[in-house]
């Protein structure tokens, strides 16, 4: 589904990504973790074309990362900070997104608006939304569009407990229908409950990519595994 090979990126002669290798299979719910500044956003921005890596190749469903629309339609990306046109309503923004992905307005949109309790807000200008509401709106767009893979940078930030539960349910249903999810997070206790696999980024490389149940065994938590790997 998504293959990253030998991804490298430097900032001011400092190696940030130092040969990232990652292969994500269809149906995976991959939690991408790493210390602050490890390079998670840099990796996600390289996949989504926001950033040009110095070296390496990225492919989704056999298409090489590029500005090509066919490549862009393989994923929906939710950045950490969702930047929007302040005077446009959430509904109009999602409708525009649907068009970009060659999709019609569907009942799915109303369903996800209700699931994320955005019925009233969705017709208001996005400039009036809170940080969490902007994330919910982007999640509604992602689950309505149902691209082959949804890529998210810290999607749980700003979500209230009910929205986190909805997020969990939506992710599971989307994957059941054939989707794939790749998201970065620092919330290891929640990732533990949602993800099927985990990848740890350290020193510019993936040092672990494993089935989450297998890596935790019976006694560990994702947090204890993460701390152990950071010390090594
Ligand atoms: N535009 C830039 N110019 C210079 N350095 C940058 C730039 N963007 C990121 N960096 C540096 O690259 C490193 C990786 O940043 P990145 O945002 O990818 O990390 P992250 O793992 O997402 O961190 P966090 O968990 O804190 O969000 C950091 O040291 C950061 O300071």
UniProtKB/TrEMBL annotation:
Keyword Lipoprotein: no
PROSITE patterns from the UniProt entry: ABC_TRANSPORTER_2 (PS50893)
CDD domains in alphabetical order: ABC_DR_subfamily_A
Ranges for domain ABC transporter: 2-228
A GO term, aspect molecular function: ATP binding
Keywords noted in UniProt: ATP-binding, Nucleotide-binding, Transport
InterPro entries the UniProt entry points to: AAA+_ATPase, ABC_transporter-like_ATP-bd, ABC_Transporter_VariousFunc, P-loop_NTPase
The protein's name: ABC transporter ATP-binding protein
């Amino acid at each position: 589904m998504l293959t990253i090979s030998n991804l490298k990126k430097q900032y001011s002669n400092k190696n940030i990504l130092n040969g990232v290798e990652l292969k994500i299979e269809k149906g995976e719910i991959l939690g991408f973790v790493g210390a602050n500044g490890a390079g998670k956003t840099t990796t996600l921005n390289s996949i989504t074309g926001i950033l040009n890596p110095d070296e390496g190749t990225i492919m989704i469903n056999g298409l090489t990362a590029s500005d090509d629309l066919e490549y862009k339609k393989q994923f929906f990306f939710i950045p950490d900070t969702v930047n929007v046109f302040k005077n446009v309503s959430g509904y109009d923004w999602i409708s525009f997104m649907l068009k970009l992905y060659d999709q019609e307005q569907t009942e799915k949109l109303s369903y996800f608006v209700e699931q994320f309790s955005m019925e009233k807000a969705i017709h208001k200008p996005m400039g009036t939304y809170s940080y969490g509401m902007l994330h919910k709106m982007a999640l509604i767009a992602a689950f309505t569009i149902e691209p082959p893979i949804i890529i998210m940078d810290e999607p749980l930030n700003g979500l209230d407990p009910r929205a986190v539960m909805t997020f969990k349910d939506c992710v599971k249903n989307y994957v059941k229908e054939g989707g794939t999810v790749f998201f970065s997070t620092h919330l290891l206790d929640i990732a533990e409950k949602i993800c099927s696999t985990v990848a740890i980024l350290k020193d510019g490389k993936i040092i672990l990519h494993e089935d989450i149940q297998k890596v935790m065994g019976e006694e560990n938590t994702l947090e204890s595994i993460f701390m152990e790997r950071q010390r090594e």
